[in-house]
Design goal:
Elements: H1 4-18, H2 25-41, H3 46-62, H4 71-86, E1 102-107, H5 114-128, E2 133-137, H6 145-155, E3 159-161, H7 168-181, E4 186-190, H8 199-212, E5 216-222, H9 227-240, E6 244-248, H10 257-266, E7 270-274, E8 282-284, H11 287-294, H12 300-310, H13 313-324, H14 330-342, H15 360-378, H16 382-386, H17 393-403, H18 407-432
Parallel strand pairs: 1-4, 1-5, 2-3, 2-4, 5-6, 6-7
Antiparallel strand pairs: 7-8
Helix pairs in contact: 1-2, 2-3, 3-4, 4-11, 5-6, 7-8, 9-10, 14-15, 15-17, 17-18
Length: 448
């Protein structure tokens, strides 16, 4: 997550506060000073930092936090509310037209990830909203820009309109006509960028806007660009009256201050964030959920949404029943690993409340282990998968040879399997005792 470093700082600060039985003005001021340093180090604009801290202090004093029974919880609640407000407050969803194409004009500097983001947005509306989408290639200047969009269009199974390197305004007109004539629901126009803002770029975009009257003009900004993102947003907004922003490369280890600065400085809502390199890695932006993530409280709603999208509900219920009845076998374990991978593997763990930070090295280790386990299980007979207890030394040697692994790897897999089965037995007893939510367990993973 692009705000990972801010998140870690906030969690450290609040951990100190929770360890204190009472709060005083002096230790509250010390906390606010630490927050100030954390935000400035994350490249949040200094005006935004001042506004944020003033609001937190004013509300803490106004609610007489220091005299409350649990002042640290009150303070965390105030900080969470103010972070939500800073990130935009309410959700700002995009509404699509019902009887005509919704036209998106994608703008931004060169290198911001605009073309890739355009394809991700096309995939989002095609796959998640079940819309007929057309991409329009208007960048006639950057070498291979048109070819890149055509390639990405094939990846996401979306049509791409292109007529070569003619006037972009004419291209936009023709793309709009095609979208209307062939009853597309969404038209996404990928425009040219520049290395820096200039009159030539802005005049072209103004002419395209005037000619096609887009429903949304979305600025794609690089989350790694820090305070510069706000400056870019202000310039584009002054010229084009933007509808909102999409932050690309939000999954990077960047300091992430742009997300906390852009709304306050430009009044532009963040509509989407790019959270990875895959075409599926585009998330709708929810200020309250992001504030919760930053404070280490997880994001259960996004986790549930991802699970619904990627995991077959009937299959999950069947798996849960088998687990609780003690019928869990190695075929089920393989299926569970595949479901976990479809959810985005270890990246989903950041959405779980209280989950400690997992290093990149640990993530890679877990990925390798899952891959090894899949190869090992694939080398077993069906009888061995259904009845792992029959796998003794001679069978282990055969499986190791067939999978290209060693006996220690086979033992590691069987140990993981047995631990998971033991955990399922505990879940079953809890379920019978009424201490466990009915049907829970479909999201369990053996990698814990």
């Amino acid at each position: 997550m692009g705000l990972q470093k801010i998140s870690e700082k906030f969690q450290e600060i609040f951990k100190k506060i929770r360890g204190q039985s009472r709060l005083s003005e002096s230790n509250m001021d010390a906390m606010l000073k630490e927050i100030r340093i954390a935000l400035l180090e994350a490249d949040v604009n200094y005006k935004v930092v001042k506004h944020f801290l003033d609001e937190v202090k004013e509300k803490a004093v106004g609610q007489d936090v220091l005299k409350k029974l649990n002042p640290s919880q009150m303070l965390v609640s105030i900080v969470q509310d103010e972070l939500t407000s800073l990130l935009g407050g309410e959700d700002a969803p995009i509404s699509l037209n019902k009887n005509k194409p919704t036209i998106f004009l994608m703008v931004g500097l060169q290198g911001s990830g605009k073309t890739t983001t355009s394809a991700k947005l096309a995939k989002f509306y095609k796959s998640k909203e079940k819309k007929k989408v057309l991409l329009g290639a208007l960048d006639v200047y950057r070498p291979a820009a048109i070819e890149q969009l055509v390639t990405l269009g094939k990846q996401v199974s979306v049509d791409v309109f292109t007529e070569g390197k003619i006037d972009p305004v004419e291209l936009a007109k023709h793309a709009k006509k095609k979208a209307y004539d062939e009853h597309y629901d969404v038209l996404i126009l990928d425009t040219a960028g520049r290395l820096q803002i200039d009159d030539l770029l802005m005049n072209e975009l103004k002419n395209i806007k005037k000619e096609i009257e887009p429903d949304y003009i979305l600025l794609v900004v690089d989350a790694m660009s820090g305070q510069e993102a706000s400056n870019v947003a202000i310039s584009f907004n002054d010229a084009l009256s933007l509808s909102g922003a999409i932050m690309s490369k939000f999954d990077s280890d960047a300091r992430g201050g742009a997300a906390l600065s852009i709304k306050y400085l430009t009044n532009l809502s963040i509509k989407f964030i790019g959270v990875g390199e895959k075409m599926d890695d585009l998330e709708q932006f929810h200020p309250d959920r992001m504030a919760s993530r930053i404070l280490g409280m997880g994001d259960i709603l996004t986790l549930v949404e991802k699970a619904k999208e990627e995991i077959d509900e009937k299959e999950a219920k069947k798996m849960t029943r088998k687990m609780l009845e003690g019928e869990f076998n190695l075929n089920d374990m393989m299926q569970q690993m595949k479901q976990f991978n479809r959810l985005g593997s270890m990246s989903i763990l950041r959405l779980i409340p209280g989950m400690p930070k997992i290093s990149d090295e640990q993530k890679e280790l877990a990925k390798r282990e899952m891959k090894n386990f899949e190869v090992i299980i694939s080398s077993m007979t069906e009888e061995e998968r259904l009845n792992p207890e029959i796998i003794k030394n001679s069978r282990k040697l055969r499986i190791a040879k067939g999978s290209g692994k060693n006996v220690q790897d086979i033992n590691r897999l069987l140990n993981k399997f047995n631990k998971t089965k033991d955990m399922m037995k505990q879940m079953k007893s809890l379920s019978k005792g009424g201490k466990f939510p009915p049907g829970f367990g479909g999201m369990n993973t053996p990698f814990h």
